[in-house]
Amino acid sequence: MTFDRSLKIAPSILAADFAALGAECEAAEAQGADWMHLDVMDGHYVPNISFGPAICAALRPHIRKVMDVHLMIAPVDPYIEAFAQAGADFITAHVEAGPHVHRTLQAIRAAGCKAGVALNPGTPAEAVADLLDEVDLLLPMSVNPGFGGQKFIQTVVPKIRKLRDMVGDRPIHIQVDGGIDPSTAPLVAEAGADVLVAGSAVFGKGSVDAPEGYGDAMRAIREACA
Ligand SMILES: O=C(CO)[C@@H](O)[C@H](O)COP(=O)(O)O
Ligand SMILES: [Fe+2]
Question: Which CATH number fits domain 8-225: 3.30.470.20, 3.40.50.300, 3.20.20.70, 3.30.420.240?
Fold first, then answer.
């Protein structure tokens, strides 16, 4: 199958109604979401706690498309199998989260998942230069991880360009996460990102009872990038 470098929108359920997560995932997909982004936070690597593998497993039957799990946890390795068992398609770990990133990425692939590596806004693109053979996805963060609804950090734009050059023809997705909305999306898409994570810009615009707002929000992002 040819590698899909077209623009994809991955709503982050961090901004969804936690009391109705299954219905929220179904609503977002019905309204045009390409991937579903699940933010796992441990209160240690980041100063917030969200949910773990049990919630991901419970959501799997409600997600027909790509289940994209963003791990903001340290350590990572002891939990890879649990997220793979939960049904993750992509598992992304932070390059800053441990000393043996190669081992982590290889373990993700060995567990049958696609492997992603995330970089915090203060981490240079070069930090992943020696990892390109081990990854299916690069995630330069456009906010410091831990919370939704933060302001987009502009320095991610030249970093995306640099990562795009480094990737060349390799089948590696470039995902961006944090503060993505119709005003910031075109900047990152033009720089070379193909997967745009958006939390508040999608789930903040509707509800399970009024899901058309999600569709309008995703259309606005796509149109801004066209
Ligand atoms: O990983 C994270 C935050 O750490 C994200 O996935 C957020 O959930 C994005 O939220 P918005 O900035 O789009 O509201
Ligand atoms: Fe995320």
Answer: 3.20.20.70
